[in-house]
Amino acid sequence: MSGIRIRLHNSRKIRVVISISLVVLSALLVYFLGEMAGRSSEDAILQNYQATYKVALSNSSRVLDMNLRSILEVVRGYLTDDEVRTVLTKDQEPGGTFSAPDREILEAEAKQLLMQQALVNDVIFFSLTGNHYMLSNTRGSYEFDVYYKTHDYLEEPWSRDAEAARGKEVFFGNDVLGPDLGNVLCMAKYLIDPRTGSPMGYLVVTLSRKLIGRSYVGGGSDPASRFLVLSDNHELIYYEGPEEQEEAIRAALLEWEQVQKAPKTLVFSDVQNGTTGWKLVNAARVSDLTGQSRQLRNMVWIVGSIVFLLILAFIRVTLQNNLLSEHLMATKLNEREAELLLLQSQINPHFLYNTLDALYFQAVIHGDDQIADATMALSNHFRLTLNRGSNFITIRDNLQWIREYMKIMNFRFHDRFELVEKVDEALLDYRILTFILQPFVENAINHGLEAKIGKGVIEIAVRSEQELLILEIRDDGAGMEDISVWETGYGVRNVQERIRLHYGNFYGASVKSSRAEGTLVTVKLPLVFTEG
């Protein structure tokens, strides 16, 4: 009997040891699996956050470009305005204000910009002799006039920055002028006569900070989101988020920019705007994003149901990743057509065509052939741009769009540009994605030929090469030293991504350029004929 008792006692001891061992192993396994599930979930959430907000910031940058584009169109129009050039370059007594007749001319030009753009606060012209004129939506000009009677604006840093940019608009995140114009943004431009290459003066436009807030897309409903805008020298231009967190987030952002390593408490996404050079940044606290992940880990530890929590964590993370990935892909696909769809949805084609036709016949009746041709070109331009809502267009219609666009540009710039076509006629009815050639033609005008003194030539070539459709856009304009500037432009990135999403990564656009010799853009597409 004693032997049986001993064996039973030993058996109990063994069962206790095994039970304790199983409990310990189960606890360790639950802890390990909880940690793995929590960390995997956190990593997935943070990566998807960065990718999603990268797209949101890219859209915000595009909206900012669109808001600035109409302002820049008016500003650049001053360069070819004979009255503005005459006022700014005439001999006059240095310093002080312009004469009364000259002020009337500048007032009319400034009103054009102020009345069209609600976000423009002030328009200021400066001549090279120190004369100045200001028209404002928000204040009088007395203090401004008094200040610049005794101060030379050429000694102020903004004028030197504008001159160094050689006609390119320079943006500042604060008031750069001597007198206090308030909490505004500033744009300065060194005015150069495109016909002679001679300087005419300076233009400063102050902009409401609402411009940035209205350009921000996709973060207003997210309590975890903090939106910042930084200048190219890391100065904070704009901040949207809790005030008590502003300084800490700004300090962490500067550290992240220097070493490209964010603190463990914050995560960042950023995009650089091509027009202003400013950096758009979204910041979020990791704790705000991963709260649910910590709850998942604690639940695994407390409940101790290994299978249940593994399934829950797997399903939760998988669904979250799938939803975010699908959302990201849909956003990437849709954003490439967003600008075109926006234009198409806001334009009433019949109203627009009827109005342009009426203007055309009025011009014909009055014998103004130049206005008639320009109006007809504009009407054809809009018809081809809308393209009946289709995402594909024939090469024939694409070339017609370019001809109409060149007519409009020659009307604006007094026949400075020549279009040469070298096209294989057998390819004219091949259909390609819309808006593939247009951005490169516009770049050739705006960045190549506009800065060139005298006439310029754009050559369009279309040919086939084995199984490829080759489209070339060549100009003899100013050219580029740094090709990366071309590659990072919004229009180029848009075309590249649309081509690769639709045709594949093998296809796309490339560029060759030399300073003062011109630029050649080559677009390669598959040689596939599709019927309309």
What is the topology?
Layout: H1 2-77, H2 82-89, H3 100-116, E1 120-127, E2 132-136, H4 142-150, H5 157-164, E3 170-172, E4 185-192, E5 199-207, H6 210-215, E6 226-230, E7 236-240, H7 246-259, E8 266-272, E9 279-285, H8 286-289, H9 291-303, H10 306-346, H11 349-365, H12 369-386, E10 392-394, H13 395-412, E11 417-423, E12 431-433, H14 438-449, E13 456-465, E14 468-475, H15 483-487, H16 490-503, E15 508-514, E16 518-526
Parallel strand pairs: 11-13
Antiparallel strand pairs: 1-2, 1-5, 3-4, 4-5, 6-7, 6-9, 8-9, 10-12, 13-14, 14-16, 15-16
Helix pairs in contact: 1-9, 1-10, 9-10, 11-12, 12-13
Number of helices: 16
* Class by SSE composition: alpha+beta
Q: Please provide the count of β strands.
A: 16
Q: Low-confidence spans: pLDDT under 50, at least 5 residues? A: 1-5, 340-347
The dominant shape is flat
Computed CA radius of gyration, to the nearest angstrom? 31 Å
Distance between the termini: 98 Å
- Mean pLDDT equals 78
The major β-sheet equals: 5 strands, antiparallel
Helix amount, in percent? 40-55%
Approximately how much beta-strand content do the residues carry? Answer: 15-25%
Report on the structure:
- The protein has 532 residues and is α+β, with helices and mostly antiparallel strands.
- Helix content is 53%, strand content 20%.
- It is built from 16 helices and 16 strands.
- The protein has helices at 2-77, 82-89, 100-116, 142-150, 157-164, 210-215, 246-259, 286-289, 291-303, 306-346, 349-365, 369-386, 395-412, 438-449, 483-487, 490-503; strands spanning 120-127, 132-136, 170-172, 185-192, 199-207, 226-230, 236-240, 266-272, 279-285, 392-394, 417-423, 431-433, 456-465, 468-475, 508-514, 518-526.
- The strands form four sheets. The chain has a five-stranded antiparallel β-sheet with strand order 2-1-5-4-3, sandwiched between helices. Strands 11-13-14-16-15 form a five-stranded mixed β-sheet. It has a four-stranded antiparallel β-sheet with strand order 7-6-9-8.
- Strand 4 and strand 5 form a beta hairpin.
- Helix 11 packs antiparallel against helix 12 and helix 12 packs antiparallel against helix 13 (395-412).
- The radius of gyration is 31 Å and the shape is flat.
- The termini are far apart.
